[in-house]
Amino acid sequence: MGLATHDIRKHFGTIRANDGISFTIESGSLHGILGENGAGKSTLMKILSGFYEADSGEVDLDGETLDLRSPADAIKVGIGMLHQDPLVFLPFTVLDNFVLGSPGPQRLDRSDARAELERVSGELGFRFDSERLARDLTVGERQQLEITRLMWLGAKVLIFDEPTTGISATQRDQLFLTLRSLAENGLIVLFVSHKLEEVEELCDSVTVIRQGKVVFEAAMPITSEVLVEKMFGKVFVEEDRDPAPFGAPVLELSRVTIEEGTTHIEDLSLSCAAGEVVGLAGLEGSGQRTLLRACAGLLAPSSGLLSVDGNNLNKASYRDHLAAGVHYLPAGRLEEGLVEGISIAEHLVLTSEDTGFFINWDAADEAARQEIDDYSIKGRPSSPAEALSGGNQQRLLLAMIPDEVRLLLLEHPTRGLDVGSAAYVWQRLLERRSDGTSIVFSSADLDELLRYSDRIVVFFAGDVFAMRNVGETDGEELGHLIGGKVRG
Ligand SMILES: Nc1ncnc2c1ncn2[C@@H]1O[C@H](COP(=O)(O)OP(=O)(O)O)[C@@H](O)[C@H]1O
Ligand SMILES: [Mg+2]
């Protein structure tokens, strides 16, 4: 009895999100699906739960091959999935949400439905006020409601895709207890995460996915070092770095403390000179983003000194940072960097420096054509940003960086890009470095960090854990440091 996949394949354009995935999971186990961002985990889970159809391959449950064409098909055979933000109808009550997925042809009357809700949630140890509006529930409670509903519908396999994002530590502990007891009661619980600590803490067994392929399967416990190596791969670095000569310091942090949520970067001193590249390593959410945001002026340090070209920017606004030549490129392209519904030409006009009161659209169109050409963007001046592929969105963001930048802050500059696009992005970035721009970037890719950084700052659990000059470290040591261990 169990769940198995055979050679599942799914591509999006040129990206092979799932590239031949096969695994078997026994009933009654809490199984981790671990992999860095973009590895293909969510795609696989959406296939298992009927949200996507695979290009090819097979899913078997308890020895039977399934024909999954919709989420309704999946739940009929007992596979249910909780999305990151559970799909709950916010303006409706808890009870309405519960019966919206009512099984069978006969609708329940309200009192029967309430009795069922109480029975199933009681078995799971949850308590709901059935007349409360779903919008008043916390994300943790919405998850509980969705678990209750899926269990009532007869789930045998429950999929949790990154379920700890956006919930408190207490809710997380509660969720973990629930997942354990579901597995003990014979379910298959798939716990999808890019967070090593969570999988180590919770799971009986693990499958590691990298670049759309299964690279490792084992029963837990497995050491963090091994899991890190499986997640990121063995690192081969070409000896092709020619460091540009450094100029004067551009970014200087002196005994800076920055706090944001559970991140607490304490007493950090760091400088980045003109022409220098500093890489920020660490598991997702270990503090790298907080540091970038503070350097960009989106978050004020609580103490210490932050300066750019000798100008104190401690209390300076985002605009002041821009004026000082600081440019920040966040990871969530469309969410943070580009605006939906706005064309390539319009984006470039909005960021061009000499925008007068009236916009000359003919000139703007011509300028956009030039940038499209320079940056090999596959699109037209009138293409809306959301119509571009990830690689082309990233190229547009690069084209939008002003010419005179002193400090470039980049979050995962090549995440999700194919190898060719990633190499192109770095080629353009290294040109800027040679012109004396300082670059600070975060990445989950050890190879990228070792290849392009002069120095690497490793984050662990919300603070800086170690710093290394790139010539003095290697992929193996970085893997240890990222997992919070100093090589013995
Ligand atoms: N709907 C989609 N359209 C285009 N590309 C996608 C889509 N969904 C995922 N991808 C791409 O497929 C790859 C795997 O994504 P995903 O399965 O979401 O990974 P994970 O959940 O492990 O972070 C990524 O490169 C991602 O950009
Ligand atoms: Mg995902």
- Largest sheet descriptor: 6 strands, mixed
CATH topology of the largest domain: Rossmann fold
Structural class: alpha/beta
Shape: globular
Q: Provide the β-strand percentage band.
A: 25-35%
CATH homologous group name of the largest domain: P-loop containing nucleotide triphosphate hydrolases
CATH A-level architecture of the largest domain: 3-Layer(aba) Sandwich
Number of strands: 20
For the largest sheet, list the strands in their spatial order: 6-7-8-3-9-10
Distance between the termini: 43 Å
How many domains in all? 2
Small molecules held by this entry: adenosine-5'-diphosphate, magnesium ion
Describe the structure.
By secondary structure, the protein is of the alpha/beta class. It is built from 17 helices and 20 strands. The protein has helices spanning 41-48, 71-77, 94-99, 110-124, 139-152, 169-184, 196-202, 224-232, 288-296, 318-323, 333-337, 344-351, 361-374, 390-399, 419-434, 446-452, 475-482, and strands spanning 2-12, 15-26, 29-34, 56-61, 64-65, 79-82, 157-161, 188-193, 205-210, 213-219, 249-260, 263-273, 277-281, 303-308, 311-312, 326-329, 407-411, 438-442, 455-460, 463-469. The strands form four sheets. A six-stranded mixed beta sheet has the order 6-7-8-3-9-10, sandwiched between helices. The protein has a six-stranded mixed beta sheet with strand order 16-17-18-13-19-20, with helices on both faces. Helix 6 (169-184) links the parallel strand 7 and strand 8 (188-193). The chain starts with a strand and ends in a 6-residue tail after the last helix. The model has no long low-confidence stretch (mean pLDDT 88). The protein binds adenosine-5'-diphosphate (ADP) and magnesium ion. Magnesium ion binds next to helix 1.
